[in-house]
Design a protein that fits this description.
Rna Polymerase Sigma Factor, Chain: A, 2 domains, elongated
Amino acid sequence: MSPTERAFRNSLVSLLPRLRRFARALCGASDIAEDVLQSALERALRSATAFDPARRLDSWMFKIIQNVWIDNRNELARRRHVAIEEAEMVGVDPTDLLDARSDLQAVVRAFSALPAEQRTILTLVVIEGYSYRDAADTLAIPIGTVMSRLARARAAIADSIKSSENDGLQGEGHD
């Protein structure tokens, strides 16, 4: 293995946590995300010589992950399910824990219900901290598209959470 190949592989390994987080946000389920990530890494390793070192590796990989997701979306969507990771919490008021879990479930449901394009933008800009320009460059779309998808995603999540809160209040006999 050449030093360039070794450096490329080492860079990929260092990006794995971010790539996994992006794949999970895009796919909505950890088992599917792992499959997408695995396929994306295989593509990247096969195409390593095509990578332009002047380009950001993370952006290149995010685009590959998105392409794998799009290429396999129908098959993967059949297997998709929403899973909420359970965490053990010590010293927390059970009522607060139930409220927090309910809030988390509402956010996860709202995020999962977004179209893949909106989940992708939200993940890049909000979770990964990309600028609008970097997100646009990564996905090869106009910056205006990034801004409108992000605005629609945020509005959809806010509406979904507001709706779920109102449903909860009505279920308790409040109007």
